[in-house]
Amino acid sequence: MAVNYDSKPLLKVNGLKQYFKINNKFTVRAVDDVSFEIYSGETYGLVGESGSGKSTIGRSVIRLYDPTAGQIQFNGMDIGGKMSKSDTSALRTQMQMIFQDPMASLNPRKKIEDIIGEGLDIHHSYRSRAERTEKVSTILKKVGLSPEHSSRYPHQFSGGQRQRVGIARALIMNPKLIIADECISALDVSIQAQVVNLMKDIQQETGTAYLFIAHDLSMVKYISDRIGVLHLGHLLETGTTEEIFENPVHPYTKSLLSAIPAPNPVVEKSRVALTYNYKTSGLDYSKGTDHLVSGTHYVKCTDKEFARFMEG
Q1: CA–CA distance from 203 to each of 14, 126, 216, 247 (Å)?
Q2: Considering only CA atoms, which of 225, 188, 199 is closest in space to residue 45?
Q3: Which of 123, 205, 256, 294 is surrounded by the most beta carbons within 10 Å?
Q4: Which tens digits make up the pLDDT trace of 162-202?
Q5: Using CA atoms, how far apart are residues 200 and 1, in angstroms rounded to an integer?
Q6: DSSP conformational letter for 254
């Protein structure tokens, strides 16, 4: 599905901050002044090392956390602050999340039919039990499972099948945006490919947008239209997949890309992984502003740092 970047963005995050107060003397700044946009039918990849704030952003956007500061607009609604009952109900149907661990996110005491149909029950999205059963059966077929699986429990499935159940649970509400929080990291490589291809097929069919959170750069490159690079809670660089991979500007982005193994043993033998240490880099993320590199390619840094980056 072609993405129309001239239209209004489906999700617009501006200056998002998510702090967690540990005690009177210490506060964790998990996400600090992050801004990005996602358009209908687009996959926006969010990458970075463990602990960089990727999952926190996803949970803040879907309002599992109350943001410390910043603006979040979704499908014409302001969801960054206190929301009305109608906005909350609309958000819970139009935005869904696929969690990282499929076993931990599925209730072990419930059958698959009740896990997938829970959203339908809460929002009264069916007129009869027969209609509910039909909706669950249809969505199970769409994710590559059999309607007969609806009477089983989560422990009776493999990891890949459980993740398909998680995808079905998200899809049944027909959302406009799905936040996929490292939804393939716990799966075997062959199963990862199946799940990602399934997500791409569903996107082509339904026009759903994805916020795809991962640290597997090769998979992010395969599925994403645009990519944002996150480090220590700051969004350092964002642009199209081609721009980020072909012309990385920030030294942290360059170090991430240099760590990707090459499938060619000759090339892999001569590959040199770049090192990056924020403490010794001389960079100050808190003082950075967005600098346009080309098109939609932005890098966050000071004017002097930007000039140095562009000189190579």
Answers
A1: 25, 24, 20, 27
A2: 225
A3: 256
A4: 888 988 999 898 899 999 998 877 777 877 888 888 888 88
A5: 10
A6: H
